[in-house]
Amino acid sequence: MKKVSRRSFLEKSSMVLASAAAITAIPASAQAAQAPSMFVHHVYFWLKNPSSKPDHAKLLKGLQSLTSIEAIKTSHIGVPADTNRPVIEKSYQFSLLLIFNNRQDQDTYQTHPTHLKFVEDCSNLWTKVIVYDSVNA
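Structure for Dabb family protein, as requested:
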């Protein structure tokens, strides 16, 4: 093991502490501006026949096909969780959460042939769809 003089140790420690202080001195607004951009697309589906197993299976298969679109960074297909609090909405049958790097990738997704085919093949299954799009605050 290499011997380190007290002076060398203190000099290096001072530089590390000064660097840490400089990083934490950056205003929160500047740190937020440096955060990677993100576009979140969250879709909720209400089926015409919520108790129909074939309709559930067809919509699930359609939703799974969407996850192959290259513009999507992260995806999640969900159903209502078994939670009960007054603020929880559980009347939907499926949710689709898609995360994109930016708005342009989400726009690409909207016109992608796989997405257009999904809408064509599955739109007859639902009575209601709600979309929540959000970006970094």
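The domain at 36-135 is CATH 3.30.70.100 (Alpha-Beta Plaits).
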